[in-house]
Amino acid sequence: MERKSMPLTNDCSFASVKPIMMDLPYPPTRVKERNQDYANLLSVDYCGAVSEMSAITQYINNENRMSCEKCPLAKSILGIAMAEMIHLQKLGELIFLLGGTIDFTARQRNGRPRLWTPDYLTIPENAVKMILADIEAEKAAINQYRMHIKMIKDEHVNAVLERIIKDEEYHIMVLQALLEE
């Protein structure tokens, strides 16, 4: 006798998910003047090993793997990913205004371009390790932004980077709370 199987479904609805970020406005997106060196630094934040592109991709991968069994956790992870998408967009605007190119190539200090790759991601197998990897990635991003702020002498660019750091710090707080649940 043939056994009827029920289709597998994911009932986790993401319709109400919003970006998880500080409830603060972003400064205007502007630069003092074109500066290729600054654009190159921001290209690393945009799509380097430690970057918004890496964060988005890692969060989305984690959310996809959690959504069927851990829907509330997956929704929080997606909300953080959405905030990272806003950061990516802000960085792209700044790179463009500074005279840089937006092509998923991080321009290293030695001048060599490096195309973004999923090799930059940490993809652990369980939710706790995923969250711990995400916390470490957020800390690395904050450290990199702070280093770039010291190198960039444009208060407009640095104001945007400081605002992004506030979200990254908030993400660490949210992720630590998720670990405790």
Descriptive report:
The structure is a single chain. With 181 residues, the protein is mostly helical. The chain has a single domain (36-108, 124-180), classed as Ferritin, core subunit, four-helix bundle (Ferritin, Up-down Bundle). Helices cover 58% and strands 3% of the residues. The protein contains 5 helices and 2 strands; from the N terminus they run H-H-H-E-E-H-H. The protein has helices at residues 36-47, 52-66, 71-97, 127-151, 155-180; strands spanning 105-107, 113-115. The protein has a two-stranded antiparallel sheet with strand order 1-2. The protein is elongated and about 70 Å long. The model has no long low-confidence stretch (mean pLDDT 93).
Quick structural summary:
With 181 residues, the protein is mainly alpha-helical. The chain has helices spanning 36-47, 52-66, 71-97, 127-151, 155-180, and strands at 105-107, 113-115. The chain has a two-stranded antiparallel ribbon with strand order 1-2.
